Amino acid sequence: FGEYKEWCDEASHNAMFAIEDATKQKAKLEAKISELSSDIEVAVSRIEKLAASTASADEDLKNATLIREKEAGEFAASEKELEETVDTLTRAVGILEKEMAKNPAAFAQMDTSSFTGVVQAISSVLDAASFSTNDRSKLQALLQ
Predict the structure, then answer these.
(1) HSE-up of 132 (CA within 13 Å, CB side)?
(2) Are residues 99 and 118 in contact, defined by beta-carbon separation less than 8 angstroms?
(3) pLDDT in tens, 34-46
(4) In angstroms, how far apart are the furthest CA atoms of the chain?
(5) Cβ neighbour number for residue 122 with a 10 Å cutoff
(6) Residue 116 and residue 112: Cα distance in Å, rounded?
């Protein structure tokens, strides 16, 4: 019976140490769970902020794309108008060269009957070139 009592005491003592160790381990694991739960909350918060930032960046990109498309359309229209103006000026230069070839005299000594046509041609060129009224008046005064 003494051996049995000794064995029971030893088993009881070992069980108490095991319970004590398990309780300490449980406390450590619960602390670790709390720490990791806190880390999860921080990560979720950060993910939400990044998602909001991404959505904002996507909206900014969309707006910038719309602006660039609008500006590209305006540029294309302006470029077309300028190309037409250059074409008109090129034709006007051709007309002037042809008129100068007909009468090799100085431009100021040209026959005024043909000069009226040239002035009208240049006038239409000036209108098409979108010169300001002041610039248009100066150029017409120079020609006359």
Answers:
(1) 2
(2) yes
(3) 999 999 999 999 9
(4) 149
(5) 19
(6) 6
Spatial CA neighbour of 97 closest among 107, 88, 87, 108? 107
Q: Which residue has the tokens 């051709």?
A: 94
Tokens standing for residue 26 = 């449980």
Residue 64, phi then psi, degrees to nearest 5: -65, -40
**Do the beta carbons of residue 144 and residue 116 sit within 8 Å?**
no
Question: What average pLDDT does the segment 96-115 reach?
Answer: 64
Residue 65 sits at φ, ψ, to 5 deg, of -65, -45
Fill in the DSSP letter of residue 105.
S
Nearest Cα to 123, choosing from 92, 94, 102? 92
For residue 132 the two structure tokens come to 């300001």
CA 42 remoteness from chain centre:
32
Between 76 and 141, name the one with better pLDDT: 76
